[in-house]
Automatic annotation (TrEMBL):
<dbReference type="GO" id="GO:0008823">
    <property type="term" value="F:cupric reductase (NADH) activity"/>
</dbReference>
<protein>
    <submittedName>
        <fullName>Metalloreductase STEAP4</fullName>
    </submittedName>
</protein>
<dbReference type="GO" id="GO:0046872">
    <property type="term" value="F:metal ion binding"/>
</dbReference>
<feature type="transmembrane region" description="Helical">
    <location>
        <begin position="302"/>
        <end position="327"/>
    </location>
</feature>
<feature type="transmembrane region" description="Helical">
    <location>
        <begin position="212"/>
        <end position="230"/>
    </location>
</feature>
<dbReference type="GO" id="GO:0006826">
    <property type="term" value="P:iron ion transport"/>
</dbReference>
<keyword id="KW-0813">Transport</keyword>
<dbReference type="GO" id="GO:0005886">
    <property type="term" value="C:plasma membrane"/>
</dbReference>
<dbReference type="GO" id="GO:0010008">
    <property type="term" value="C:endosome membrane"/>
</dbReference>
<keyword id="KW-0812">Transmembrane</keyword>
<keyword id="KW-0967">Endosome</keyword>
<dbReference type="InterPro" id="IPR051267">
    <property type="entry name" value="STEAP_metalloreductase"/>
</dbReference>
<dbReference type="InterPro" id="IPR036291">
    <property type="entry name" value="NAD(P)-bd_dom_sf"/>
</dbReference>
<keyword id="KW-0274">FAD</keyword>
<keyword id="KW-0560">Oxidoreductase</keyword>
<feature type="transmembrane region" description="Helical">
    <location>
        <begin position="430"/>
        <end position="452"/>
    </location>
</feature>
<keyword id="KW-0408">Iron</keyword>
Length: 478
């Protein structure tokens, strides 16, 4: 592996070459340099070698830096920097200072900053901007920081195929983009180096769009669990002296899950309806929604998927009902008492209709629920046209809300009329769960009224209601 010390002198500041000069004539593999022989440096070197590059390491201890990928070589930073036109900086930001002294050797070279930080806003400027400030003559490109050493070593997979990059030099970005493509990644240009801070924040994010839906789900689950615990267990113990605490495991859970599922399903569709009314009220679609509504709309998919998860749990808990000891005991007890007392219960057609309709609505609702979940998978939604996707998510979505709400109404039937269901003056849980979906259905029906629907469709097609006394809507268009 030859080291060409004339490279830095001959490379003009705006020209970016991946091959050391003097070797371009021969069809030789390109030589790249990596500063740092740590986890990322070694994984990256391994991957570059596998994809046909030659690699040289710049290290503080070139003779004792531990095992490196076979076929690579370690040198001191200065020699390594001069040997290649592109240098990966696989060193933590806190240790960047040593590069200041290498400014002459790094002048005109592409410096790929792969670093991340432990926390957001730790420094006033991004690591890549800091590196650019240390070596103003180099072309700093922020890239590869969203990949782990492990994924670099193993090659791209569906989950981490993308390499985000940004930088001020178009040629430098092109050089990094080409190399990323050769390594099997898809490069996504995020603009100038000022976007580096945003890229450095990416790996610190922990399910950002799931946070709000999960908080809502946990809050609702906790509230309904304690509400039903008080009504179904504590009330019985205090008022009747009966210990029904065993109901917590299945009965209570199988009440909480469908309640949370139904409310979350309604919450998934409610912001769309609110947005519709807001547009009708404002008479335009060109005004931004309030922030809270924007945030709510953006996490509808996650709300829907959590609702589906709770619906799955409800189905599973319902399936075990017939094998429960408590249920088998009650059936046997009832049969034996009928035999003893020589009496037969009369078949009630209304109850049969009600029970069958209740199950049927539940099954249909769950079937559509699953369809909504499947169609939200990227691989499925990508295969659908926009019209097909919105038909499933909107029309079938509202049908799902309707089936599930009706299923709950049938479950309650006329129980809400009986005073003994209001234990300690509290309404039963299912009644509370019906509030949001019922409001949603009523609002949606109002939006479907022909005169309202016509106005909303026109607004969504760009029509604006201009108020002669207030020119604010017009001003928004200019
Ligand atoms: P690491 O295992 O700690 O390696 C860092 C390397 O930097 C060391 O092996 C050392 O190499 C060099 N170094 C340490 N102190 C130095 C100093 N004072 N002056 C000059 N060089 C020094 O860290 P890493 O996991 O490879 O991470 C390197 C960079 O990649 C970090 O900025 C990190 O945020 C980023 N990153 C890492 C991963 C990952 O999965 N590990 C993923 C994305 C981004 P020598 O002994 O050879 O000089």
């Amino acid at each position: 592996m030859s080291v060409d010390s004339s490279v830095s002198k001959e490379v003009k500041p705006e020209s970016v070459l991946l091959c050391p000069l003097g070797t371009t004539a021969a069809p030789e593999q390109k030589l790249l340099c990596i500063f740092g022989t740590g986890d990322l440096g070694r994984s990256l070197g391994q991957r570059l070698l596998q994809c046909g590059y030659r690699v040289v390491y710049g290290s503080r201890r070139p003779n004792s830096c531990g095992p490196l990928p076979r076929g690579t070589k370690a040198m001191n930073h200065e020699a390594a920097a001069m040997s290649a036109a592109l240098v990966f900086v696989c060193v933590h930001r806190e240790n960047y200072d040593f590069m200041e002294a290498l400014a002459p050797q790094l002048n005109g070279k592409v410096l790929v900053d792969v670093s991340n930080n432990l926390k957001k806003n730790l420094y006033p400027e991004s690591n890549a901007e800091y590196l650019q400030r240390l070596i103003p003559g180099a072309h700093v490109v922020k890239a590869f920081n969203t990949l782990s050493a492990w994924s670099l070593q193993n090659g791209p997979s569906d989950a981490n195929r993308q390499v985000y990059l940004c930088g001020n030099s178009v040629q430098a970005k092109q050089a990094v983009e080409e190399m990323a493509t050769k390594l099997g990644f898809a490069a996504l240009d995020r603009g100038s180096l000022s976007a580096a801070g945003e890229l450095e924040d990416f790996p610190l994010q922990l399910f950002p769009e799931w946070r709000l839906p999960l908080r809502v789900a946990v809050g609702l689950t906790a509230f309904f669990f304690f509400y039903l615990l008080m009504r179904d267990v504590v009330y019985k113990y205090v008022e009747q002296g009966k210990d029904t605490s065993f109901r917590i495991m299945v009965s209570l859970a199988n009440k909480v899950f469908p309640i949370v599922s139904l409310i979350m399903l309604a919450l998934c569709y409610l912001p769309g309806v609110i947005a519709g009314f807001l547009q009708l009220y404002r008479g335009t679609k060109y005004r931004r929604f309030p922030d809270w509504l924007d945030r709510w709309m953006l996490c509808r998919k996650q709300i829907g998927l959590i609702a589906l998860g709770f619906a799955f749990l409800h189905v599973l808990y319902t399936l075990v009902i017939p094998i429960r000891y408590y249920v088998r005991f009650r059936i046997a007890e009832n049969t034996i008492s009928q035999i003893r007392e020589n009496r037969t219960s009369v078949f009630d057609t209304t109850t049969a209709w009600r029970a069958d309709s209740y199950y049927s609505m539940g099954i249909l609702g769950f079937g559509l629920y699953v369809l909504l979940g499947i169609s939200s998978l990227p691989s499925v939604s990508n295969a659908l046209s926009w019209r097909e996707f919105s038909f499933i998510q909107s029309k079938l979505g509202y049908l799902t809300v309707f089936f599930c709400t009706f299923h709950t109404y049938l479950y309650g039937w006329d129980r809400f009329l009986h005073p003994n269901t209001y234990k300690w003056f509290t309404p039963p849980g299912y009644l509370l769960s019906l509030v949001v979906p019922s409001v949603l259905i009523v609002l949606k029906l109002l939006l479907l009224l022909p005169c309202v629907d016509r106005s909303l469709t026109r607004i969504r097609q760009g029509w604006e209601r201009t108020d002669p006394e207030d020119g604010s809507e017009k001003a928004l268009l200019t």
